[in-house]
Amino acid sequence: MSAAQDPNIPDFCDVLVIGGGPAGLAAALSTPSTLNVVVVERRELPSRKACDGILTPTTVRTLGTLGINPATDLGGLPLPTMQVIDRDNDRTWQVPLSGHLGVNRLGLDDCLRRRFLARPGAVFLEQTRALGFTTSVAGHRLELLRAGQRASIRTRHLVDATGALSWSRRRTGQAGPCAVALQACYPAQGPCPRFDWIFDRSATPYYLWAIHTGEDLKLGGVFPLRAGRHGW
Ligand SMILES: Cc1cc2nc3c(=O)[nH]c(=O)nc-3n(C[C@H](O)[C@H](O)[C@H](O)COP(=O)(O)OP(=O)(O)OC[C@H]3O[C@@H](n4cnc5c(N)ncnc54)[C@H](O)[C@@H]3O)c2cc1C
Is 24 helix (H, G, I), strand (E, B) or coil? Predict the structure, then answer.
């Protein structure tokens, strides 16, 4: 079925972003306003995601460059301290945080989407799944599935912002990861518990660790990714 048969789907755009999460919307908002940008998102919105809603100082700064002040626009509250409760090893640490804010993740996604939609010509297509793309000298053509109908959009720039398991990696023949490892390092000193990070193997199937070296505290984990899933 041709794209022209769905009036919501343009034939062509300058930038086509796959994935309407924070990365995709931040990329869309970062493009010059003279370009017309389309974002496609396979989920129906609002969509809940596994997220603690913690913004690091870098994230706060990045949102600032997009014109978003998390304290005023998202009701962000300061998170002065994280408490790590390591039930596996029967230990607890208090980790002071500086410049971290706690926000509602749904509110963050919604704020980014509204900012994007305020741009002239912005198109956000939810419940629209990217199926595959072809590339030629003229640009890219993305195949889509929306409401059970196939369609396509031509674009000059294609951005993959599909999250932890990159969709385009599989389309380009590269193997996707089978697990994602994360590690954070904090100075292990200071008072005041507020945000709790709990390590407990009896409560989670993930492999998590908390290592106290004496000078700092390393927190990490390995999260297995299930085949056929795009994200968490
Ligand atoms: C338990 C947990 C706690 C976390 N806590 C925090 C935290 O406190 N602070 C923090 O900053 N981060 C946290 N994260 C990480 C955070 O959730 C992710 O880093 C963030 O969502 C990544 O944003 P993204 O835009 O890259 O990906 P996503 O939010 O995953 O967005 C990708 C989007 O692409 C869409 N998509 C995928 N495939 C297709 C397709 N074929 N066609 C169309 N659309 C597609 C998906 O539906 C999805 O909406 C946490 C994660 C977990 C698991």
Answer: helix
